[in-house]
Amino acid sequence: ALSSALAGQSCIRVSALRSSMLGRGEKGDPLRGPSVHYLCTTFLKELGDAGFSKRSTIRDIEPAFIRGKSATGRCPRDGLQGLAFVDTLDGADHVGRAQLMLSYTWSYAVGDIVDALVCYCQRHGLDM
């Protein structure tokens, strides 16, 4: 029990250190997020290639698509197998430090989420 407690403390310190060293959207950054450009281009294309559509819900795509892409990678936060979907993404056009937080439910259609983000960016003159 003591070794488990110490291991937990060590992980917390390492995670805090890694987080403090990050801040520009690198893998492991707690504020890392996908770009709207990625979501409305590559993400939707990959979904279609996997047999999903813009009408598919988050619940529909999570087991096969989201978890499928992230299950085998190594997490940059704790070093264990399985990582956040956002840490599967590479390239400045696809991922970076999140500027806004979006709240959604598992029953929302993927296309509705992406369309809302595109609309928001256009209305506010933001790069996608």
How does this structure look, described?
With 128 residues, the chain is mainly α. 48% of the residues lie in helices and 5% in strands. The protein contains four helices and two strands; from the N terminus they run αβααβα. The chain has helices spanning 2-21, 36-49, 58-70, 110-123; strands spanning 32-34, 95-97. A two-stranded antiparallel sheet has the order 1-2. Helix 2 packs antiparallel against helix 4. The longest helix is centred in the N-terminal third of the chain and has 20 residues, at 2-21. It starts with a helix and ends in a 5-residue tail after the last helix. The model is unreliable at 1-21 (pLDDT under 50).
Topology:
Blueprint: H1 2-21, E1 32-34, H2 36-49, H3 58-70, E2 95-97, H4 110-123
> Total number of β-strand segments?
2
What is the overall shape? Answer: globular
Largest β-sheet summary: 2 strands, antiparallel
The number of helical runs is: 4
Q: Summarize model confidence as the mean pLDDT.
A: 83
How much is the radius of gyration in Å?
A: 17 Å
The percentage helix is: 40-55%
Structural class by sheet pairing and helices: mainly alpha
Report low-confidence residues grouped into runs of 5 or more: 1-21
| Main sheet strand line-up | 1-2
List keywords for this structure.
globular; 5% strand; 128 residues; single chain; mainly alpha; two-stranded antiparallel ribbon
